[in-house]
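Q: What would this chain look like folded?
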Amino acid sequence: MKKLIIIFSLILLMVSFADARRKVKKSGEIKDNVYTDAEYGFKLTLNDEWKSTVKKEKENFRLVLVKKNYDIPMDYKDAPDYTQVPRIVVYADTSTVPTLAFIDSLVSDTYKSDQKKEILKEYEILNEQEIIPKGHKPLSIGKSEAKGFQWLAQAKYTKEVATSISSLGGQRVYGSYGGAIIAVKNGNNILLFHMMCEYQFFESIFNEMLQIVNTLEWVEQ
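A: My prediction, written as C-alpha cells:
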C-alpha cells in the first residue's frame, strides 16, 4: 500500500512539473519587430528604443513597452531611481461606448465600473492626485486612418529624495508627470495606449508613442 502511495505521489509530482514547464500562452507574438495580437485583430511596428513585454493570453493588458535609454531630471542626478521611466501600456477589450466617451469615463471622478477598475491598475496617470487636463482631440490613426481620440494631462508631485543610503534627511523635489491616453476602435474592439513620463521630457516621448500608434493596422481574424 505504501508503495502505491509513493508511486501515485511521484506521478502527481511529475504532472505538476509538466504543467509548470508548459509554455504559457501569450496575448500575441513579435516577429521582425512587429507585434501581432492573437485575439483583437491588430498589429503594431515596434521601436528598437523600447523594450517590449508580451502579456498573457487572457489579460486585457496586451503589451508593455519600456524606454531603454531616457533622460533623468537634474534633481535626480544623484538618485536616478526616483525618475519616472517612460512606459507605454497597450490595453484591448470590447465596448459599445464611443472612444471619446470611453476616455471621459476613465477620467471621470464619479464613474465606476469593473473595467475601469482594471484599467486603473496600469494607467498610472489616472491615479495621480493633482491632475491638470491638457485637453483631448480627434486623431486619424494608422494606414486605415481609423478615428481615435487622445487625452493629455499633467500631474504635479512632491517627493522626498534620499541622495544616499547614509543620508539622514532628503531633498524635497517639486515636479510633474506628463500622461497620455489614446483610444481607437474597430467595431466593438477598443484599443487603449497609455504613457507617462517626467513632464519636462513629455513632448519627445509622446512623439515616439505617436510613431508607434500610427503603425497600427487592423488584420483579418
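The longest strand covers residues 146-161.
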